[in-house]
Amino acid sequence: MTSGISDKNRKILDLLNRTQKGPFTAKEASLALNFPFKKTSILLTYFATKEWLSRIQRGLYITVPLGTINPKEYKENSWIVADRIFSPCYIGGWSAAGANIKSISFYC
Prior knowledge:
This protein is α+β, with helices and mostly antiparallel strands. It folds into two domains: 1-74, Winged helix-like DNA-binding domain superfamily/Winged helix DNA-binding domain (Arc Repressor Mutant, subunit A), CATH 1.10.10; 77-108, no CATH class. Helix content is 44%, strand content 16%. The protein has helices at 7-19, 26-33, 37-49, 78-86, 94-97, and strands at 24-25, 53-57, 60-63, 90-92, 105-107. The chain has a three-stranded antiparallel beta sheet with strand order 1-3-2. A hairpin with a 2-residue loop joins strand 2 and strand 3. Helix 2 (26-33) crosses helix 3. The protein is globular.
């Protein structure tokens, strides 16, 4: 055991860090870990409470980089999160082009 995390959990988090790029669901984590969905959901909730993962919304998580000084304050890029949450829609308008935010349009 190193710094409050067991070797088993460290390996699971390492696998999630390597396989999940950006926000991921419990179902995607379950497939990557080859665990039953229920077990994965419980594990992700546990990791989020320990701040080893960050919960974006119910059932949607991101990994927290190992060198993060304050995991509570770690946030994924908001455009990556928005793209994932609103998929298959997309965000357009001035904000997507990087200009001053004048309007945001969602297209489905």
